[in-house]
């Protein structure tokens, strides 16, 4: 601006000047021209301005007409000049007289006051107007005339003579505008935003815009508008309407080739080169290189690519649809012919929209395969949808549809409904796609379409259209999978005498791919047999466990293995091997934690929740169940919603949150759910809620109905759903201890070596109703088993019962110790109703201080330190050394050292003697 001030001053003194201002598109040339014109007017000059446009390039004397229209002269003089202009012929000859007349008028005007002639984008002016400007330039050296011209960065090849002639004039000055530096960008921002915002945004703004002043200002405007609309404390950097329009303005201000090349680069993407762009838009390589250079000078490109992905997107979004389609089509073909990856080609085909060409079918399928490996499930679905529409072969369409089910099921099983509907129509015996049959049937059943799933398997079983071993394996796997989880289908799919029996297992195909296509079916075949063996309890106790471990070791998390792997985790739970189930569940959760497979995580998290529930960790069960429900919508859960709902209802019920549990039970569930193994868990949860809320009759009715269903299913295994124990509890609540005892004793006789936990609970129930000498040994055995194998909550209940038994026997101190220990265990589980039953009105704030205080006052013994007192109290409450270490933030070794000193000071030899000692201390302190 200082240079222009000098030019204005020199002109006012009678020294004519010419200034050519060049710069990239949107670099601020026009703004500078306006500022200079305003300064000239303020200084008393006459400003005559005109703007050239691409549309007027062919209009003869277009710029001159605008100059004439701006002249402050008499109308008669204006009319005369226009008449001469119309009569002028070739500007190089007959037009000379007109140009002399006009220039003389301007010079006479300059004798009274300085005249500034400002022409914006002179490179777009028509040839006749440019001849006049050259004529004027040669006559203004000793006049008060300043000729200000703005032009592009690059001199057009057909205008070289014009610019050369200008630059030969001794009073000519050339000014080149450059983009803002980083500090210049920061300065522009700081003038409109807070210093903190300017400092925070400057680097990002400069990186995005390359210092283009118009784009910098657009981002500032968008940031301010966003901050005002959201009342944000910090100003965010957003690419909103102003910025998008700024990007488009940059392109439309440039040459048409610049816009064409920009669109081509946006469509082609990061792999674009000048050569490929030249092929793509049929422009000479030199023209493309010049356009890329201009785009770089404007700040839009860096190293031939868009600085900002948002700019690239905006360019394509605002281009005519037919232009984009043509670019995408040609780009896809260029990439394909040059040997680009299937993913690169498919990205163009998918982005094109509409229907794809037939040649893209194998490319789309291969790209979808790669996308699923990388968990880009959305892109995989888009590829497969296009492939499905372009494919003409029915069998291949069925295969593509199966892949669509897999890709969709990973993230939103409910969205797979449309593809499942196709499956039921396509899976007729003469067109069946056996490779994915078990998965497809499993997904149909999951969606609640149990009858359809069974119908497909039934038809394929009765009239197989294949003798291939792999296809027969797939049919067997689908059949066994359905009957494993929906046992009432066994008579239909295995024959009328099949109820209650394990599913048939086909001879296993030879490994190492000896039977092509069987690999996807094998996990379902093996898992179905293992799950059913665990559910029915027909096998030796360790057989399902051993087979489950083999399956877990053999298969990894894939689309064809995720449900089988989850099912064998349930088999381990039903075999009462919570330790193994937990270890493998955590391992599988870690494996899929970084993958975009929410449905997989949901299935595994439910298993984790069930383990926590059976361990008595009510808070953990609740949090894991809620986490599982958060992974997918209720609709996506299908009939499997039974599992997380059942766990959540039971956790809420045992924590005393009965209203919340009731609301969960009020939720609508799929009609097919009660007929599944998972449905048994849900019905059990409802019965336990009835029992906890004072409705023992409804509870008993529910539990007995579960028993009938399990007998009908051939799955009356108490390790799955312990309806016998629940029914015994209901009989107790109804005041029928004799019925409770009969049921518990009958089940106790059935307890095998693999059901120690269940035996303990049965002994606890019998101990509650027994009045003879057998009561105390029963309860002691129950406590011993639960200390070694059971859940903390069941241990708390058993300890409470043992405490009452000791109290009835007159051992008040031992009873008090046991009940307090039971209370603390129940409290740690979150089981408030159990706490209230054990010691009504008792609270942790009442219990903890007295125990900790009296520990330090042990009579006739060395007092414990504060750290030892904390360890002693936690040990007395039943916590393990590892749990104590975690609570006190010390190492296990430190806890062990403290316990050694505690035993010495309190004169005890075993950990189990601590509660009694502390109870004695408490009695002494009270006395």
UniProtKB/TrEMBL annotation:
The keyword Nucleotide-binding applies. Residues 495-515 are annotated as: Disordered. GO terms for molecular function: adenylate cyclase activity; ATP binding; DNA binding. GO terms for cellular component: cytoplasm. Gene3D superfamilies: Tetratricopeptide repeat domain (1.25.40.10), Winged helix-like DNA-binding domain superfamily/Winged helix DNA-binding domain (1.10.10.10). Transmembrane segments: none annotated. GO terms for biological process: regulation of DNA-templated transcription. Residues 857-922 form the HTH luxR-type domain. Pfam families: AAA_16, GerE. InterPro entries: AAA_16, P-loop_NTPase, Sig_transdc_resp-reg_C-effctor, TPR-like_helical_dom_sf, Tscrpt_reg_LuxR_C, WH-like_DNA-bd_sf. Keywords: ATP-binding, DNA-binding, Nucleotide-binding. The keyword ATP-binding applies. This is DNA-binding CsgD family transcriptional regulator. It comes from Actinoplanes octamycinicus.
